[in-house]
Design brief:
Chains A, B, C: GO terms for molecular function: lyase activity. Three copies of one chain form a homotrimer. Chain A is an alpha+beta fold. Chain A is built from eight helices and 13 strands. In chain A, strands 2, 3, 4, 5, 6, 7, 8, 9, 10, 11, 12 and 13 form a twelve-stranded antiparallel beta sheet that branches. In chain A, helix 1 runs antiparallel to helix 6.
Chain lengths: 347, 347, 347
């Protein structure tokens, strides 16, 4: 018997990353009507621009794009076999921008440039920063974001690389945001969209409890995570963690929270910027996800009638809304997600 | 911290309904190949006209429409945030008609006219009747039905409105039914359809046990219910009921029973009329749904070769087939659904 | 009350099969973007030719076909109401060939020719061999395979038919395989495909542990099995087996194992031949499926650059990889599937 173990992908270890290198991630993916329907089956998605082709056309787009968070999942999923297989923790996101809507029929692939490395003092692992881009079949960049993760070393004796820590913006400025070509809200139908509140109705500092909750199931999060071709085994294999539980992909919590936020933010239609995000505590099957938002900032976009709103989106599995951190500055145990993003809204 | 609770939708209460008013429900929805596939994944759907575009074309349609019950769910789902959020019970349906098939690419929105109100003697709630219409992107009405529900009052001191109780037909007559334009069964292939029984082979009073059973799961009913953008929290959130169980959307039971009825009614292809329906007892995850039917009536449609058959469709979670009510006239505890509908069949 | 039990399909019994007869199976099915997305949601499917329309075009096809195993499930599912309802066991497959890719918009129907019968010595059942063909809307055969099953007799006194045992090839030869028209791998992008190993890199006798595992859920296998319109009640109804467990459709295990085999066989793109297969032990919800492969043979196809590789694909629910049978020659209890197939690979 000839063992072919060498043919399987062991993933990259810390010492396999070189600053400046570009990783071309495998398995491009065509998306379409199926992904759209599944997104509506897996999440309580109701933002009208993604639900109705007619509504999208009334906003100047050719049809409903794939939900922006779904597009992010597709781009992210491709990076997992290269970046995450030996990751100990996903530490953060920054400078995420949605540059082009993804439409049915588009084929998405991802690349990541290594932009920072820093070995940990324990010598067993290190932090790797990558700038990931999603590209469509016309080689246009559709999404661009920075992510950093703690990655194990394979060989503890491998020398520590020169420390490179990228300078990252704590938040994108309004001028960094890209409004999709043609987008306009001058014929926006607030009745069909579901709420009357426009950009001018939100105040910085305002908080919104999105009220509804969804109890999550194993079959759902696995279907969602597979749909984005995210192969991290902790999501699928009960034997991969000592507690025998499947860890739910953090992106599942993001999608659930974002879609729940419809109730109070129905007009925060398009996600265009990701300033940062923390997966504060794990999510497991049986947890009931709730969400609340806080308005962090507001800005004009330069496109008449299209405002930008910066939101903190928090997903919890219990506890009172609007509670985030304890006196020790740490996230409360019921907080699963703290996301900071920009969305576009009719002014 | 500024609380934005006022931005979320509290739903309508009994005193918010005025007879004659039309409610424009939010979030239009485009449907397509994804909804079709999901319907086949969530239910044992086999009626050939909906499974095969070629079969649909041989029946004079341009392709397979979205399953009629799925189209109903889409129209119904849009009404939930306005009509059902504070409903204590969904009491009945009447005069439901399918007027146009829904095809891939169509965008559906819903409106409801308030046609009746009657405050309950306890002063805490009342019954509201609405006539709901589903419209496609050409503003054609695709579905039209009456539904009534018991709705809570927000303000117990609000005065009781003048009682208006609409006159509703106990059942649609054959001349009320609309046969889709172009439908013909003269080249109908009974072998491909799965059964040889035609309209003439069914007798009024005949009962059919559909034999098969399906044990239902939380992930399935939640995916189905979300797919139709039905947001009623009892279906999703274990904390919304004292018993900690998620109530399964009654429409999930309708779809399961209707698709199970293929076995014995494979040629009852298109659903065109809904005479009435009762969700007799709740359905929960783990229940095994079975179905039986009774032929209530038969009629000619005026279209050569196309017969109409009026069927009682009963879904149970145990017990013997053909048992419906006890000696007290109440539904037996194992009966979950008693639906009365018209379907079209080759003569 | 008039009982309509005669209207439901009781399935065929052993004495209902006559050698030479062709059964036209019911319910043709159109497939499309929804089935494709669901296949990616239900299985960790990553073979690039099925994931990316652009990749498929670079290989000479017009777009990504439906996954070959999914196409097989569609063809197989149609045969279940006729062949499997009264089957006691699915005994084997042989001479399976994929003759045409199935594309979005195609409509598939199935026929089966009875090619063998042999009553068992107990007089209560017999073995039936059928050659099943899947046809598209242009009446082209897309899949062709032989399957045999043990089927109950309805009438134990029915006379035993003349024994006919078809001669079946233990394995297809390379010249039996059909390379899809236009397929070419001369511009094959190994980076996008996910692995660098080409046909020449695999040795006969080589074994590959595919490493990853997936714990399966009731909702998933039922959705998958329904999607292929496979109605065998043991998959859906907890009351259909004495142990109250739902038996998972063997095809679900095949799809899970085949998609897991991406890790090590990412370039075994198209499945073109099925030499044989055994569902060695049942699979239930909660089992964690793993897979390993063995290279059984290699051959040239006559198409420049396109090699054929014959693989044994084994799915397990525990135990060490590469263990198949005990000293008694029987499958080990953890082995669920032993499949023997041909795939096409860039040379």
């Amino acid at each position: 018997m000839i063992m072919g173990a060498a043919k399987t992908n062991p993933g990259r270890f810390f010492e396999d990353y070189t600053v400046g290198e570009t990783i071309h991630h495998a398995v491009p993916r065509s998306v379409g009507a199926g992904e759209r329907a599944l997104y509506h089956a897996l999440y309580p998605a109701r933002h009208a621009l993604y639900s109705s082709d007619e509504f999208a056309r009334s906003c100047g787009l050719k049809q409903s794009p794939l939900d922006d968070i779904a597009a992010f999942h597709v781009v992210f999923g491709k990076t997992v076999p290269d970046v995450s297989l030996n990751a100990l923790a996903n530490l953060g996101y920054a400078e995420g921008r949605w540059l082009k809507p993804v439409y049915a029929g588009d084929t998405i692939r991802s690349t990541s440039e290594v932009i920072g490395v820093k070995q940990n003092s324990n010598g067993k692992s290190g932090v790797v920063w990558v700038r990931t881009k999603g590209h469509n079949q016309r080689d246009e960049v559709v999404i661009d974001y920075v992510r950093w993760a703690m990655v194990r070393k394979r060989d503890l004796d491998a020398p520590a690389p020169e420390v490179v820590i990228p300078e990252l913006k704590p938040a994108l400025a309004a001028e960094d945001l890209v409004v999709p070509e043609g987008l306009r809200f001058d014929e926006y139908d607030f009745t069909l969209a579901g709420e009357a509140h426009r950009w001018g109705d939100y105040e910085i500092g305002e908080t919104i409890d999105h009220v509804d909750g969804v109890t999550v199931e194993e079959a759902e999060h696995m279907m969602a995570t597979r749909l984005w071709q995210n192969t991290a085994k902790v999501h699928f294999d009960v034997s991969s963690r000592p507690d025998g539980r499947r860890l739910i992909y953090g992106g599942h919590v993001i999608s659930m929270a974002r879609t729940l936020s419809f109730n109070g933010l129905a007009n925060a239609q398009m996600v265009v910027g990701l300033n940062g995000g923390a997966h504060a505590n794990p999510c497991f099957s049986g947890d009931t996800i709730r969400a609340w938002s806080e308005v962090l900032d507001k800005a004009e976009t330069g496109v008449p009638g299209v405002g930008a709103i910066r939101l903190r989106l928090v997903a919890t599995k219990g506890g009172a809304p609007f509670m985030l951190k304890g006196e020790d500055g740490k996230y409360l145990p019921d907080v699963m997600l703290d996301l900071d993003y920009w969305a576009l809204m009719p002014m």
